[in-house]
Amino acid sequence: MRRDARRNVERLATAAGQIFRERGLDAPLEEIAKAAGVSAGTLYNRFGGRDALIDAVMPDVVEAKVREAMVRAEAEADPWDGFTLYLTLLCEMQATDLAVSDAVSRRYADAKRLNEICEAQMDGVRGLIAKAHAAGRLRADFTAEDLPYLLWTTSTVVRATASRAPDAWRRALAFTLDGLRPAAAHPLPAPPLTAEQVHAVMLDLGAKRSGQGR
Description:
By secondary structure, the chain is an all-alpha fold. The chain is built from 11 helices and no strands.
């Protein structure tokens, strides 16, 4: 790659990282190109489209943050504390970085490396859930496939309240966590989504938001 082409790629990656954090992964690509000082055509020539650009700037960031959250959660002696800490840390990421919020709550069909990282973290989540179940601290019918409900809810609350009540998501999460305690459990009216359904819904969310941000 020529030096000027490499410089354009670096500028686009830097601009994308900043704008994605501020606006989310559906931020207009034209704004990213403008911030990088290049044409939209250059962006498409170098990356092909939104998903490839996301895959160029987000995987390392998401992997590091999710791994840190899992390490902290697994270090907790009480299984319930570990489970709730992990959820809280994920929600804090959503509240402070819209790009990470989108990355953990949606899927982008051609952002293959990012998708692999997000899917891989589910093994750790299942471990936290299993420990909390075994300790009798988490309602028995909660599954790893229920986790996206919390992420979708938090994402919506964060976007709706960020400018007026930036900590509102913490209250919403507290209500949810109380509902996950065994003492609060009542029969649920519907089964959990399957892993395939969760993946399909996340792809749909990513596609819809990307279409809005073009």
